[in-house]
From TrEMBL:
Its main location: cytoplasm. It holds the Pfam family FBPase. Mg(2+) 1 binds at residues 102, 122, 124. Substrate binds at residues 125-128, 218, 245, 263-265, 275. Belongs to the FBPase class 1 family. It is found in: Cytoplasm. This is Fructose-1,6-bisphosphatase class 1. The lineage of its organism: Bacteria, Pseudomonadati, Bacteroidota, Cytophagia, Cytophagales. Mg(2+) 2 binds at residues 122, 125, 281. The keyword GTP-binding does not apply. Homotetramer. Its cofactor is Mg(2+).
């Protein structure tokens, strides 16, 4: 790990997220501070969700913690709680005109039509891990809206395509809580210190190995996978790669980002267009992994250039170390 980030400005490890955001803003003369505030709002929501997650076991056992909450959220599932918490932080922060969340079908207007950004989120990713105390996360993606500030944001603001993302990132609630994000100038990761209530720069200028020896997919579905993917996985097994699959996209991609590897969620019989969502899973993770030097495709094309026509559109996803992703693509071409 470098001692200093080579991002816009050199920022030492241990710098608070707040200061880091401020320094990046200062380094970009055109910045108005709105995106900076939006990133702070996301960090605030992440802290609140982290707190909810850390006591989720107690809630389930006793049902008594949080009963003082006037909104009755303690009775709700954690992915709905995360949705509410992020929404509230973005609404109160005032920098977001509208939100699209995995938890709601329609565009959610925040009551801030004058704001120039919109945010797509998967408030809680890997929800099947909640009850078993395994890593989960949040994914976010930020666009500058195309519709005129002052008017209500519209669906088209969210359907601009992956290359138009202004920023994207994830929060991983694991052995520690990590916020990793990009604004298109590299990737930086911040670790949460709960006793101080702050995120600190811990992973400056993250780059992913070009190659790796970890493959991550739900191998139980292998008979359903396209032939090229089946052959790729067999090749991984023959080469004695390590299989690792947590079942939370963020946790799997984060591990592979640090160690080198590939994550695959191809089309299956149960999910012929893939399972993952393009807007708030595929695009943000693809933007971030490309910024870290990796690659992402849907098996046919670079993911970031994949056309999007609906808010909750699904996609196959193959993402990780460039040499491994390229191997899948080549295998695919051989079979076409
Ligand atoms: P979510 O919890 O937001 O619905 O996402 C779960 C996703 C993804 O995070 C994970 O990699 C994948 O679903 C796991 O799916 P399988 O259980 O089919 O392997
Ligand atoms: Mn998800
Ligand atoms: Mn989710």
């Amino acid at each position: 790990m470098n001692a200093y980030s080579e991002d816009v400005v050199a920022v030492p490890v241990g710098t608070t997220l707040d200061r880091f955001i401020k320094r990046q803003q200062q380094a970009s003369p055109a910045a108005t501070g709105e995106l900076s505030q939006l990133l702070r709002d996301i960090a605030l929501a992440a802290k609140i969700v982290q707190r909810e997650i850390s006591r989720a076991g107690l809630l389930a056992v006793t049902g008594s913690f949080g009963t003082e909450n006037q909104h009755g959220e303690a009775q709700q599932k954690l992915d709905v709680i995360a949705h509410i918490r992020f929404l509230r932080a973005l609404r109160n922060g005032g920098e977001v005109a509208a939100v699209v969340s995995e938890e709601e079908d329609q565009v959610i207007h925040t009551g801030n039509p004058g704001s120039k950004y919109v945010v797509a989120i998967d408030p809680l990713d890997g929800s099947s891990n909640i009850d078993v105390n395994v890593s989960i996360g949040t994914i976010f993606s930020i666009y500058r809206r195309q519709s005129q500030p002052g008017t209500p944001a519209v669906e088209a603001d969210f359907l601009q395509g992956g290359l138009q993302q202004v920023a994207a990132g994830y929060v991983l609630y694991g052995t520690s809580t990590l916020l990793v994000y990009t604004t298109g100038q590299g990737v930086n990761g911040f670790t949460y210190n709960s006793s101080l209530g702050e995120f600190f720069l811990s992973h400056p200028t993250l780059t992913t190995p070009v190659d790796g020896r970890i493959y991550s997919c739900n191998e139980g579905n292998i008979v359903d996978y396209p032939l090229a993917i089946q052959q790729f996985i067999t090749a991984c097994q023959q080469a004695r790669f390590t299989a690792r699959y947590i079942g939370a996209l963020i946790a799997d991609v984060h591990r592979n980002l640090l160690k080198g590897g590939i994550y695959l969620y191809p089309a299956t019989q149960a999910a012929p267009a893939g399972k993952l969502r393009l807007l708030y899973e595929g695009f943000p993770m693809a933007f971030l992994i490309e910024q870290a030097g990796g690659s992402a495709t849907d098996g046919q094309q670079r993911l970031l250039t994949k056309p999007i026509s609906t808010l909750h559109q699904r996609t196959p996803l193959i993402i990780g170390s460039t040499q491994l992703v390229d191997l899948v693509t080549q295998q695919n071409k051989l079979l076409l």
